[in-house]
Amino acid sequence: MPALLLWNQLTEAERAATLQRPGSALHAEVFASAQALIDRVRRGGDAALREITVELDDVPLDALAVSDAQLQSATDELPGAARAALDRAIANVRRFHAAQASAALAIETMPGVLCERHSVPLAAVGLYVPAGSAPLPSTAIMLGVPAQIAGCPVRVLCTPPRPDGRADPATLYVAQQCGIERIFKVGGAQAIAAMAYGTQAVPKTDKVFGPGNAWVTAAKLLVARDPQGAACDLPAGPSEVLVIADETARADFVAADLLAQAEHSPDAQAILVTTSSALARDVLSQIETQTTTLSRREIVRQSLASARFIVVSDLATALVVSNAYAPEHLILQVRDPRHWLAQVQAAGSVFLGAWSPEPMGDYCTGTNHVLPTGGAARCYSGLSVADFLRHLTVQELTPAGLDVLGPTAQTLAMLEGLDAHANAVSIRLKALAARGVA
After folding, report:
1. DSSP for 119-135?
2. Which fold has domain 4-22+238-366?
3. Which CATH class is domain 26-105+122-234?
4. Predicted local confidence at residue 288, as pLDDT
5. Is there a catalytic annotation at residue 329?
6. What mean pLDDT do residues 390-405 have?
7. Is the pLDDT of residue 34 over 70?
């Protein structure tokens, strides 16, 4: 269990070490491993995907694609209550994301000069749904719904196979509800490679989406660097949560929120920043008690090795610590949490108050749970419909508009020493003058 760290007694170097993510020392090794898998898939295609699936997942596959029969049996296999819960979550996510759509922008910046912005869906997108230590049909919702709203014509979904060689039935049910027809039983960095470059079975896509472990995150970044690969949504690796709590917080609630992230994987990280040493000790006690009841307690205990309990002098300092860490999930279990929201500068998704547990955002409030991790929340936002669109700018000038604004462009072009730029305007202005427009 983590010790209590007194923030005001730590040096700058100790503070930086306190906010260090687990596993970062393996950064180069993880990238090298992911690149090796990418290279194998590019060389070997479907055959390499099958070989890697046997090596890493111990699952031999007759076919990479999920068949229509598997899709139907997946629906039949799910209890009615499970389908109803998934349907409700899909509806909420669809409602929130549909509201993000915006009409085309058109504005006349000056008489005769019209500027526009139009949104166009990405032609082909790859959706990655993890299923390593636990299936994540909720991720299929978070990817499938905005891709469908955006209108992407080709939507490919990859998810790791179960030991029996089938895909998770709940994930398949969600895929059907979101209109996804191309589904493959492939996981890990190799799935990212397949969607980025294409294989005999898996179509090449323009952009890959979805969270995953460190190898998946590394693969996404690697293919995004390659002009022949595919763009990626955002760095969404091992899960993390930071809870800011004051003396009004309930220790059992705080402990439960920390454990909810710790159970994801051994490299997940849970951090408590509190103004109350007494609360911190109570949370530690609650963690010990609650952990004994959890089915994934061994994973939890491994994750808790990198947990941090930080005691600060006031909530303003707590926000400074949180912004420095830039958590994927930020929970404010404090008096008047909305008051402190304005001071949040870097976080993927924020949960206000004692009655907003983080798993609600994971599953069914409507917000997206594909969020930046590893400190990327300083410059990335969570997934949205906009990530599945390209935005085209358009401009149209009338002769009168060019006559008025053209000299400005001429002057700027000559300031930059680009006389061909200036000439493209000048030749038209001369034509207008000859027509008597000027």
Report:
1. EEE-SEEEEE---SSS-
2. Rossmann fold (3.40.50)
3. alpha beta
4. 96
5. yes
6. 97
7. yes
